[in-house]
Fold these 3 entries.
Entry 1:
Amino acid sequence: MNWMIAIPEIVLACCGMAILILCVFRKHDDGFQLASMLSVASLGITAMLVLSGTMGLGFHGMVVADRFSGFCRVVILIASALAVLLSLDHNQQPANASQKLARFEFPVLILFATIGMMIMVSASNLMTVYMGVELQSLSIYVLAAFARDTERSSEAGLKYFVLGALASGLLLYGISLVYGFAGTTSFGELAKSFANPASLSPGLIVGVVFVVAGLAFKSAAVPFHMWTPDVYEGAPTSVTAFMATAPKVAALALFSRVMVGPFGHLIASWQQLLVLISIASMLLSAFAAIGQSNIKRMLAYSSIGHVGYLLIGIAAGTEVGIRGVLIYLVTYVFMSAGIFACVLAMRRKGRSLERISDLAGLGRTDPALALALIIFLFSLAGIPPFSGFWAKYFIFIAAVEQGLWALAVLGMASSAVAAFYYIRIIKVMYFDPAEAAFDTRPMSLSVVAGASAIFTTFFFIFPAPLVSAAQAAAKVLFL
Amino acid sequence: MNQAGFPLLSMLTFLPLVGVAIIATTGGEERVVASNARWTALWTSLLTAILSLVLWAKFDMSVSGFQFTETAEWLPEWGISYRMGVDGISVLFVLLSTILTPICILASWESIQSRVREFMIAFLVLETMMVGMFCSLDFVLFYMFFEGVLIPMYLIIGIWGGPRRVYAAFKFFLYTLAGSLLMLLALLAMWHAAGTTDIVALMGHSFSRNMQTWLFLALFASFAVKVPMWPFHTWLPDAHVEAPTAGSVILAGVLLKMGAYGFLRFSLPMLPDASQYFAPFIFTLSVVAVIYTSLVALAQTDMKKLIAYSSVAHMGVVTIGIFTFNAQGISGALFQMLSHGVVSGALFLCVGVVYDRIHTREIARYGGLADRMPAYALAFMLFTMASVGLPGTAGFAGEVLVLVGSFKVSLWLAVLGGMGMILGAAYMLYLYRRVMFGKLEKLDLKGILDLSPREIAIFAPLVVLTIWMGVYPSSFTGFFEASVGHMVEHHQAALAAAVKLAGVVR
């Protein structure tokens, strides 16, 4: 037993429970503010532990701490911390009081989801994978339904739960099939047994397909994307902001590790499948997002498209591809956190707004917010010099290298279409006549939006450290 | 270190951003902010223009390679670095950009009244992108500037444009983006094949025949939209008509040159076989552009639209010149690009002058202006003649050189390409007659004022340039003779090598 491997997760779990107990015993207020601050602190401490932690296998090979998991865990922790910061103000708004969002369980649930995600990215056994996925999903089901007295939130939570349970079932079924045909669930053993082509059997392929389906659901790729727009729209915006960042990192990182790790030798069997999922995600998102008038729904479709781009890197199945995925995930976390900070700032007389048309004339009424949004939108559209362009650059390199030309050309075509709905928002902000100004922004949103905007804009000057780190992280999957 | 002794090209590229920072940080009353923004933008762009004269003075015309080069590490392990440099082909475009920008800022001094600060910021960012694009010697860097141009231009058309500005802005953005994304794929494929994105190294790399074909098509998608070549030109009239005057000037003067520059910088030297293979295709499109869009121009009732179509026709002549692959043709194309940059920019400014006064671009709403605006009529006449290609004006040398070059390729190409000059004379003189001559009948035209001192200051440098380029063209052709000669030699050598290789295989 190597306990040290899981120290960050253990510490975070202890912190989560300590915060829970502490706040239960507070009588005079809801404890939301305190719990949030403590959560951010524990996320920070955990990140330190991850960075200074030991490497290797632990718990009889159930979890692994390597550079890949270290990279992903740090990104997840940052994303979760940003989500807690984003929720601070939104949940305490008087206008949202009826939704009772300002409860101390909120940050604690984010912490537990984060532990689940950390387990996902450091799993080295299919059983650990399932445990991590479930811990993460269950926490997020609750978060989606957190405004339990409102219809939309409850509907979102229920929908997410039912469909998510189905996906978990698919995943588990796939795992059991793989176990049945290969006789092991350990990543290392699986990779070893698949190295021999004679071990391939139709049942095994069916199992792999089920695992892919489960993971595609968790990362919201077409055709398992149906829940995304409804859940994004229905869940409280602070929850959507969380769902759009950290869980995406965890799901895609897990996807990468499972595909190139244990199933790496089966690439001929799953590459086509991923290419298909990726193309479908990119095209569907590009066209479906055009018709949206609710910004959260539009961002949901946009996230489906970005998962499509991320899957290009996995479909390539090479070190370059995984490096691209990791770079993309980092830039995506900042773009998403930033854009949700802007969405949370859309508020008039305390009421939150979600329609794209509410942004009309923002360029005049709030130039700073409009500038931040312009940066995020151009970046999401992949226009240089913003970080979104670099993310696409490093992903498409992988496709070109592997000669996946159909994927590359269709990806480019869909990003041209997708640019339309991003610049449409810029049109609303700058070309349309102004409406009344938004309420003054709280500090926390300005900080998150500002920091993300700075990262997104100036990433191009010093890309080397991140690219090198991603390179090092991707390398360990191919040792 | 380069011959300037300091990183001249980087300074030229990023100096406008200093102006942006200053403008962005000023606050206060709106009128004060607007006036500060105008003056800061003007001084920044003037300073850049003056600094760019160092380039003019210190450029060594006898060298065919890149000068004023700068290198800095960026992503060295992946073959990407920050490389800047100019050769004879790009140096004059840098100057064109730096000189047109202050003129444009002066031209929008009074016509832009709302959100002046944002306008000036967008314009200075645009200058950075343009200069950077012509200076970059790394494909990734080039791509960043090439596509980065979209952001300020989209905003300039969309915010300060005419009634159909939203449509025009979207069309401009999406057309160009769709093209450039294919170029990005070509970039990645070239990087994969050659292991570097250094433009100089890529020029030395020989890509396989089959790959060249695909790369050429991908690059063609991007550059043909930018040039624009028929039938990818439909965004241009919309963008020109709806953009504010300064936007049209930069669009016609510099942005259209980006496509042709791309052909010269990438397609020709890097993909010689494919360029040769596709030359008849390019000639066909160009000839159609020259004749068809000239005829379309003849039928226009909107002044800006007429000049926009004439731009397409003139750029058709440029693409013919580029793909003749001989020194005359390419030199002519370069000269035509420069003269078109000055002349069509000036023509759009001329339209802007009357638009600011009467607020219409309908040709039928004018007539007899020569009576009230003699100075304006003189300037307009000069630019009309230059656009027609009258000897002694800027338009002449370029067209003649291209014709000479195309004669060497085929008689018919020269004849059909030459049609453009005849038709050009027809629509430009027809325009001039309808606007300037005739009886002064319209009431609101009777009180129209001649050029103000500010407008004279705008036109003066352009008039000087137009005559200078017409009377003494060799002070401009001298810049690119060496580079063009080298490029033609390189092209012939590459073709000869390919033929030899084919012989060996056979």
Entry 2:
Amino acid sequence: MADGFSATPDPRPPNSRYHAHLVTHLVHYVLVYGISLIFINVLLEQLGAPVPAVPALIVAGALSRDGKMSSTNILLAAIAASLIADYMWFLLGRRYGYRILRTLCRISLSPDSCVRDTEARFERWGLKSLLIAKFIPGFSTVAPPLAGASGRTTFAFVIYDGIGALIWAGASVAAGRAFHHAIDRLLAALENLGGWALVVIGLLLLVLIAVKWAQRIHFLKQLRLARIEPHELKAMLDRGEFPVVIDVRTPGARKHNPRSIPNAILVHMDDVATQLGDVAPHAEVVLYCT
Amino acid sequence: MLIDKGYTKVRPLAGGLDGWIDAGFPVEDVA
């Protein structure tokens, strides 16, 4: 046949052929709109949506190795999206201060990244933490508003955040280029799976989100059970019960808001156990941060 | 950490210092 089409009949049933065709179309769209998809994916992830961008960057890296996409364009799209989202968080941090961190922790799917931990990490490393922030789950979204809340300049923020985005996206694209043979095989296998590939990917994504939500709900439930409300603490103090109240905020947070609950003990969280050496183990202890 | 040290009644304050201030309760300046 001179038209280049194979005359060999496709042995798969019509329904399977239709789904394989669908995936081929999907891959085609990924190739055509790949840069826009990368931009949207990174933007959503950096805004806090549970849509991981690293797999897409790795696949894009593999496609760039095969000459199907431009690695420069992939990096530019990822850095631009990242900077836009992070700058929005930076501005919110600058406007609303440390309160924005609590909102972020509330909506975050990473309950392990609490305000105090991220504050401590940011205070230890300063703006340099932005260079590796995107590799640390939870810290990625919290670091930019923290930079804004702590009064860092826009110029310094953009420089460090841009380099951080370049390192993060560059590492993912480089990984895709390095393992492009394996990724090509994976894409081919997905294409052979036809419509089931979409089902598998969709299910994996749903399971990932469900597990994160379940962890978050469990964490919040435990926290609710264990917490003491401000009016309860006030009533205890008024009754003369005098629980041991400990301010475990970081020095930066205390500098930002130089007030504390009357008679609270100001200690760093790492030293709290040693600082309470003379307090009886059965004493009521109340901890607070920002 | 405190529970590991034997403290059995350890509770975080809901809302932190901001929650305490928002409730209108007194604060003192940090020296």
Entry 3:
Amino acid sequence: MKIRNLITTTALFTVLSVPATVMAGSGKLAVNITPTIGKVDVVHNGAKMSIMRNQDENNVINSEFANTSRKCPPFCVQPAIVAPGVETIGEVEVLDYLKKIADGDKSLMVVDSRTPDWVIRGTIPGSVNIPWTKLKDDADPFEVADTLTKQFGAAEKGEGFDFSMAKTLVMFCNGTWCGQSPTNIKRLLKMGYPAEKIKWYRGGMQDWEALGLTTVK
Amino acid sequence: MKTILVTSRLLLAVTAAASMSVIIGCSTTGTAPAAANAAETDKPAELAVKITPTISSVSVMHNGKPVTVMRNQDGNNKVNPEFAKTSRKCPPFCIQPFTIAPGVETIGEVEMVDYLGKMGSGDKSIIVVDSRTPDWVERGTIPGAVNIPFTKLDPDKGADPVSIAESLESFGAVETGKGWDFSNVKTIVLFCNGQWCGQSPISIRTMLKQGFPAAKIKWYRGGMQSWSNLGFNTVTPEATAR
């Protein structure tokens, strides 16, 4: 626990100690992410872009995410913790992972678990779309194996998988009221994916949009 | 075992509350009427917009009156305009980290509702604290919360020793003459305006500095922002005083 905190602290410190890249090209922003982070540069589908917050103080949330009352079930409020050992994270931590990916860390992947019809309306820059349907319990086993080996870095081993080289996944979907990434996380755990290699951004697109953070279509 | 107890308690609350809940619908502000007499209800009415698949609502006392905690039932309802804003200046309204301090658990709405349900069932070992200044609280807070502004806990924000001592005593701490005894403190659940709000984090850091045990502090990071995004009802001081 202490070690994990230390690692997180070190990781955040790394972000803070390279203001040249973090603040690249930015003038003085009024609406920063944290007191010391204005922008984070990422790579989305091979193209460089920056994540920052909307700078118009009168801006209101994307109307898609202004709805408060989707039916539950299925759109129920998710618990703070999805499964034992799976760390729940927020925006600052997601941005830290995105920064590391942009800096060349191949052991990390930020996964948008939503179906493509949602993703085309906007996602987190630097994320990769792997719809939850590709990993759900009744998904084609060959397709599941493909995702695990070709995208997540697992290796086939006998009847199962070897996850020793698997990537650390940061999973998200539409947020506090969305069960898609939680469903995938539970399935991955069942298949043996190590819990400490899965992070859950529970706030998802709901909180990302509520904070005016950059999305990409 | 603990889970079963909690569930049955919540079920009781739902049974008591649900018959009225459907009739009244719900607005994002204002008080939901008192829970109906449980005897009138054979089985809990089904809400379309529940909290979780098994929890429709819970009942909690706010300023001495019972309030039903539930989500807005209008499928077209939009977030309270106060919380539709995306771009408050940072600093000071910066995005908070997910964890505020080692040992302090970050919780969400499901856990908050569970604490409220326990309080509604008579559990006196929990206090939910709205850390915001009163001008914010007037616009609506979480039913069951007491307002202890962060300015009353933090000496750096001008809190005097008397008001700090009063707050700590209300949390179950005992002044011994040699300092504070925190061995019998309550579980304190703190929140403010959410991800972009630093007020409850300040209160938590102050409490930790005084020696308050981290394990007895819970932080609802989503705060009023997430509470409003999910259409949970709120209460205003005027509404409950009426």
